[in-house]
Amino acid sequence: MNDSRFKKLGTAAEVVDAVGGTFKAAEIAGCKPPAISNAIARGRLPSPTFLIFEAELAERGLVASPELWGIRPAPRRKRH
Question: What is the pTM of this model?
Answer without folding.
Answer: 0.85
